[in-house]
Amino acid sequence: MHDRYAVIGNPVAHSKSPWIHAEFARACGQDLQYLSIEAPVDAFGATVEAFRAAGGIGANVTLPFKQEAFRYCAAASQRARAAQAVNTLVLDRGAPWGDNTDGVGLVRDLENNLGFALPGRRVLVMGAGGAAQGVVPSLHAQDPERLVVANRTPDKARTLAARFEGTIGCSYAELTGAAFDLVINATSAGLAGELPPLPPLQTLLAPGALAYDMVYGRDTPFLALARGAGVRTSDGAGMLVEQAAESFSIWRGVRPDTQAVLAALRRG
Ligand code: NAP
Questions:
Q1: Which domains does the chain have, with CATH numbers?
Q2: How far is CA 29 from CA 72, 128, 230, in A?
Q3: S-S: 108 plus which of 87, 211, 237, 242, CB 3.0-4.6 Å?
Q4: Does residue 239 have its Cβ closer than 6 Å to ligand 1?
Q5: Which one of 65, 124, 152 would you pick to mutate in the ligand 1 pocket, going by the greatest count of ligand atoms within 8 A of its CB?
Q6: How much is the pLDDT for 1?
Q7: pLDDT tens, 44-96?
Q8: What are the residues facing 185 on neighbouring strands?
Q9: Cβ of 195 less than 6 Å from ligand 1
Q10: Are 69 and 38 in contact (CB under 8 A)?
């Protein structure tokens, strides 16, 4: 039997993870199987247990289960504890262990693929869900001049920001007049063709800013508006491939090259 992995989410049919991990496995000469499993929203733990019983040894976790996956794990990495969210499960080394590779995936995409250095920059994260929770610790560790988390439900942004010294949590209205070098859309608004209620991008985005949307494989209203404001934009395809590479290296002890897979993903 092949070593068996999966991505577990709801919905999950759209996930590119099975394709990405199959490409990594082929390039690295690793013999493995990577499935896609839709868990009922009230049965994440039971779904993981059934997968383990069927020989599953590792899994990625996606929306809406990352916080539940953190609670499911008996132990977790320092970065998963900082995020209080898990996107990578290791199931074959004793009790379930969790990690979070979203933050390192985003930072590698920004710094290595997009040439954007984070230290000393003004960074805005929109959203305070599982994705924002995963990346705020890694962004904070890069020593930006300013790190602000804004959310439709402002209390969630304040709670998240309060865990990281100097980080500010607020509503979108409170952003009026502020300017940022990097604005990251970590909301799921783009999936519904919607836009967080931002102040005008002409003032929110400093000259030379980068507008980044974690959603991938489609244009979002945020990216379209940012292009209209004349700034550089990126979708989340690079983050997706980089976080997958980190999960792959945790499971297999081999770091796959990401460039060829990212180029193929962008070609469609
Ligand atoms: P989540 O836990 O469900 O959180 C959703 C967030 O979006 C919340 O902050 C929510 O605000 C906000 N939101 C939803 N609709 C909105 C709207 N119309 N206007 C303003 N805010 C809105 O989801 P998640 O796990 O954080 O994922 C967020 C997105 O990131 C998804 O699209 C996901 O596909 C993407 N993602 C991409 C990668 C990658 O590798 N590229 C990795 C992780 C996630 P409230 O708190 O007010 O409800």
A1: 3-100+239-267 (3.40.50.10860), 103-235 (3.40.50.720)
A2: 32, 38, 43
A3: 242
A4: yes
A5: 152
A6: 73
A7: 999 999 999 999 999 999 989 999 999 999 999 999 999 999 999 999 999 99
A8: 126, 213
A9: no
A10: no
